[in-house]
Amino acid sequence: MVKVAETYHVPVLLKESVDGLSIHEGTYVDMTFGGGGHSREILSRMPKGARLYGFDQDRDAEQNIIDDDRFVFVRSNFRYLKNWMRYHGVDGVDGIIADLGVSSHHFDDETRGFSFRYDAPLDMRMNNRGGKTAADILNEYDEERLATIFRLYGEIKNAGNVARKIVSYRMSKALATTQNLMHAVWGVEELTPNMKKEAARLFQALRIEVNHEMEALSEMLVSAVELLTKGGRLVVITYHSLEDRLVKNVMKSGNIEGKVVQDFFGQKQVPLKEMCKVITVSAEELESNPRSRSAKLRIAEKR
C-alpha cells in the first residue's frame, strides 16, 4: 500500500513567525502555503478589510485551499511574486512570510521520491506538472556537473567520488528509483547512520537542483524587498545554511550578495531593519516535531 502523509505539514515556529508579521489591516502574502497552517493562523488575526495571498506550485496543496473571502490562492512558484501581485492589482504589501522547509507531505509521500526511506521513482519535483526530475539529472548530467551540485547544494565533502559512482552505475543501468541511487553510491539497501547523513545531503542537493530552489528564493527575496511598504515585515524560516545565508544577506543589505551600498555622502542605503536575533525552536516544539530542529526564523521591517 502506498504511504502518504497523514498530516500535510506541521507548521514550524507558528506563533513566533505570525507574531513577527505584526498583522493589521492590509495585504499579506504566505509564500509557502502548503498545508495552510501559517495562512490559517494569519487569517485568524486579520481584520475584515485585510487580504491574504497564498502561493504554492504543488498540485497537492490545492486540496488545502481555505474558504475565506479574504484569501486568494495563487498556483505558482513564489519566484513570480511580483508578476502575480501586479496581476492582482497590488502595488505594495504589508507582510510576507515564507516557511522554506520541505513539507511532511513530501517526505512522507513515497510516490514523490523526496526520501530515501522508500523505494520510489526519483522525481523530487515540487511542481510535478513539468520540468526535469531527479532521475533526469542523475542520468544526463556529466560527472563534473553532478559533483558540483553535490558539493554546492549538499556540502558533500567527497562529492567527486559520489558522482563517479553514479556515472559508473548508469553505464549498465539507468537510475530510476531511490533504491537504484542507494545501490549506485553505497551498494547496500540498509544504510548505516553515517550513510544516512550523507544520503540526506545527497537528496537535498538533488531536490535543490530539480526545483531551482536557490534561484527561486533569490528572485522572491528581491521582489519582497521591492513590494514591502514602509513598516512592512519580511518573515522567513530557513532550514539549511545555503538558504539562510541568502535571507541573512537580504535582511542585512537589501541584496543577495550582502553588500551594503552607500550614497554619495557615505550614508548606508539599507532598505530593511532586522527586528530581532535569530529565533530557533523551543525544546517543547522540538520534542513534538523533530523535523523542526534546524529551523531558523529571521524577521525584518522595511524602513
The N- to C-terminal Cα distance equals 53 Å
For the biggest sheet, the summary is:
7 strands, mixed
Beta content: 5-15%
Strand order of the largest sheet: 3-2-1-4-5-9-8
Mean pLDDT: 92
Helix tally equals: 12
Tell me roughly what share of residues is in helical segments.
25-40%
Residue stretches low in confidence (pLDDT < 50, at least 5 long) are: 1-6
The ordered H/E elements are: HEHEEHEHHHHHHHEHEEEHE
* SSE class: alpha/beta
**Shape call:** globular
Question: C-alpha Rg, in Å?
Answer: 20 Å
Give me the count of strands: 9
Could you explain how this protein is built, in words?
This protein is an alpha/beta fold and 303 residues long. Helix content is 40%, strand content 15%. Strands 3-2-1-4-5-9-8 form a 7-stranded mixed beta sheet, with helices on both faces. Strands 6-7 form a two-stranded antiparallel sheet. The chain is globular and about 60 Å long. The relative contact order is 0.14.
Write a brief caption for the model:
The protein has 303 residues and is α/β, with parallel strands linked by helices. It contains twelve helices and nine strands.
